[in-house]
Amino acid sequence: MGRLTGDEDMDRETRGRLLGRLAALLGQSARRAGAAGLARGRWLGDLLVEVGPHIPIRDIGTLQAHHRGLMGEELADRLVKTAGNATTAVGAAGGALAAVQFAAPPLLLTAPAQLAAETLVVAAIEVKMIAELHEVYGVQVHGTGTARGAAFVTSWARQRGINPLEAGSLTSALGTAAKTALRKRMLRTFGRTMGTMGPLLTGAAAGAALNRSATRALGTKIRNDLRASTGGPPPLPRG
To answer: Superkingdom, according to UniProt (predicted)?
Structure first.
């Protein structure tokens, strides 16, 4: 997960191999959750909540150093672009992995775990993007790692920025409404990753395009929300 959600430049084969390893690790848990657990989104949501506190979030100084001194809107642009590239690469790698599975039908039994792995990685990349956009716009989210992780996961699920002054926004446990929103969002993302299961390499193209579009749209929503809460520049145009 650390390598798949980072900024490391890797080829499709390496990314696909890492996705395959993650899918193998999730396989047994997916079988225990069963079709009903997958269909309700609870299992996927619980996985993201567990992963959330462990997603490496860079502070503003580290971000500026990594991106050669970029600041403000230019830095935010770069973060959204980088996240979009990362989820695009995950979709492409997942599609390539699925193409191999179509060539070996028995491996199709691993498809649910592969889709779960893709879903989890895409969600984690977007959660990281959201957390680092908060850094760029000066919205400090303090608290324990668990509380911060839960807050950013909730922000991802609701597609809204975090207001640290809002009661209950930084608790380590998600409330009922947040859990419901998280399950729905995970199911939408899971549905998006199903496009990678197309035959040959059609899935790779579909997964890449869908992920890129969705990640960029999410970045725009979060940035507009953070601008509104901090009195920043006018909202970005939609699209």
So the answer is: Bacteria
Closest CA to 54 of 176, 149, 152, 121: 149
pTM: 0.85
Element (H, E) at 148: helix 145-158
Task: Count Cβ atoms below 10 Å from residue 11 Cβ, excluding itself.
Answer: 10
Instruction: Report yes or no on 235 lying in a domain.
Output: no
Whether the Cβ atoms of residue 206 and residue 95 lie closer than 8 Å to each other: yes
Pairwise CA distance, residues 81 & 84, whole Å: 5
Q: Which domain holds residue 133?
A: 34-230
The tens digit of pLDDT for each residue in 62-111 reads: 999 999 999 999 999 999 999 999 998 888 776 655 544 444 444 444 56
How many Cβ atoms from other residues are within 10 Å of residue 39's Cβ?
A: 12
